[in-house]
Design a protein that fits this description.
This protein is of the alpha+beta class and about 425 residues long. It has 17 helices and 6 strands.
Amino acid sequence: MATSADRGSTADDLLLPDALDLRAPTDDPWDGLAVPAGWEDIAALATRVAAELDVLSGDIVGCIVAELPGYADAVPADDLRASVHRTIEMMLVGIAEDRPPRPEEISIRRELGHRRALQGLPVRSLIQAYHVGYRELWQALVRALPADAPGTATRLLAVATTVWSWVHETTDAIAEAHRETMRAQEAHVIGARQRFTELLVAGDLTADEAPRLAASIGFDVQADFRVVACSVVAADGADARRIQAVLETLSGSHSVVARGPKVIVTTQGVDETTLVGRLAAELPEAAFGVGLERRGLVGARESLGDAERALEVAAAGGVARFEDEWLWATLRGSAARLGDVLAVGAAAAVQHPHLAETVLVFGDAGFSVSETARQLSLHANTVAYRLERWHALTGWDPRTFAGLTRSLAALRLSPE
């Protein structure tokens, strides 16, 4: 059976099919109001406030937007106004009937928590908005008190218990629905990232599944991708979760997946220096292989290959960029095929490690005997002797291009 990740679904697919509507109900909640005996003046007070509900809802919306930065960006204005209007009306009916919220009213608030989670609103902001609404409602009730009704003012104090019941039960329901939705979203996104990475590894990019998955986790399939592969430090997948959390603070889009002994980081829209610096800081003991930035999904697969090859030649706690290490990274994949060709040099390195060290430094020192001697704190004649000795043992003259290339390949590709 296909999963939501297989279909490349988005967060909208998580909407409950039987979700309760937040718009005004078809039946007037004030019809058939059940007012307890002796509570008529409080019911009348609630009715007076309800008569100005459009104005009060607008004021509450204004307070929420002013006091909670980012709220208006996450929640459309019409949606916010409608939910505030219905929430306050439901509460006024509850006050008029001197009762806590009913199960169906709690269910509607759960739907609001679900919706706000899908809109990306933090649960803290949602709860704060409710508190703003209740504060403004209470002030409206106080303003509506008749000046010549001290008994009503006294009874209004008892309404605080009803108000607290609504605050407690509705915000609990909202917060739980929000958490449930966030967990569902997280599971969906993790599955989409995992499946997308598997498609990159397999090269199965011709069907429309890969583009849908890429889009669902924030990638532009026409833009450039870069992949980084790193060695796993923690065995429980914690590395991938830590890296994902860190990268979410950067610009661009990122997918971090644990795959066997590696963590695969697919990124887009972030500077390489910043990316690698944050990764290395988070996992200082890990080795990293950095692929080239390449265009589109096919480019993402190629960058993944770059990264995995570069990782093969990266030292623990080090970073190997395919752009710099392409020769050795590519040859490492052919180490078994080249074993017989390079066996003499590999054996000589085991028996004479000081000679191998001299050849490696000589290759990195611009083929300069004097610079090699300086780096190794040796006399130049000693360096020359070691190079000749290597030549004698292997038949490869490290002072020639062919001999040095073959020597370096044997030393770089031989097992540690």
